[in-house]
Amino acid sequence: MEKEQLSYEEAIRRASDAIQRFPLIDVHGVPLMSTIAENWKSVSEFCPDPSDLLISTYPKAGTTWTQEIVDLLLHNGDAEVCKRAPTAVRIPFLEICSPPPIPSGLDLLEQMKPPRVIKTHLPIQLVPKGFWENKCKVIYMARNAKDNLVSYFHFDRMNLTQPEPGPWDGYIHKFMQGRLGWGSWYDHVKGYWKERKERNILYILYEDMKENPFREIKRIMHYLDLSVSEDVIKRIVQLASFQVMKDNPMANYSNIPKPVFDQSISAFMRKGEVGDWVNHFTSAQSQMFDEDYANQMKDVDIPFRFSI
Ligand code: A3P
């Protein structure tokens, strides 16, 4: 029998009953959603084409923003082409695996011809080795720990497939101990940082992108060996701005129904700011976090900024 072709939205609607806050299961010491852990063999064996591009981030570091910028760069700033499908369909999420009939990242990738752009949140040691063997380009975006934490907290409230975040104070400790999906933020940002030269990874910072998107988009353009006019880059700055993406149904995840992303709890495109952490941390929490941060980050000098 021929497989019924469902739209992504319809597939999610049909799977709604099977949606739950999936527990985390350790994969090589990294907690991942159980649906990913159960499918781990297929994920780890995925072999990209050398022309494929990987966008990697710790969750909530600005993945969707980077995806939009890259798609716009690859299509010379053509806004209409970049509205051909929602972000998750244009740029599949490698390891994501949900109840059928929702297509997994691997299902979507199988239907696409290289060169593909692929999203992952995997820490560097779990990225399928084919990406390194085939010398694929990799763009890594990182965001300062406190804003990243705040964003993840609100995301875990509204993403009903992620474990309950619990109260804010406890969440800070979970973050510091790496007990969240995709593990430790500290190990994640450090892992890619230490390997960036050896493996030709373009390492970009959310705060730099926010401060000067024109400059950072140009860096991405050069890395991708593209030649896009300055006018087009200016247009991309505008099209990938927070407000334009918030209003763009192909970039704001409004296609994901409420049983998965309940945006009445917190919007996916929530604030998009640097320094929102000051509205969440008490001064005692901030001090405790900073002391632990200094210790966990003492072996690297990544130029994160907590305000701009
Ligand atoms: P906030 O929760 O702080 O608002 P990801 O795409 O990795 O899930 O990250 C989501 C975070 O990036 C959210 O942060 C979201 O608002 C922010 N974001 C998305 N698009 C953005 C843009 N164009 N400019 C600035 N921030 C953006």
UniProtKB/TrEMBL annotation:
Places the protein is found: Cytoplasm
Keyword presence, Cytoplasm: yes
Domain Sulfotransferase: 50-300
GO molecular function terms noted in the UniProt entry: sulfotransferase activity
Entry similarity comment: Belongs to the sulfotransferase 1 family.
PANTHER family: SULFOTRANSFERASE SULT
Name of protein: Sulfotransferase
Organism for this UniProt entry: Sinocyclocheilus grahami
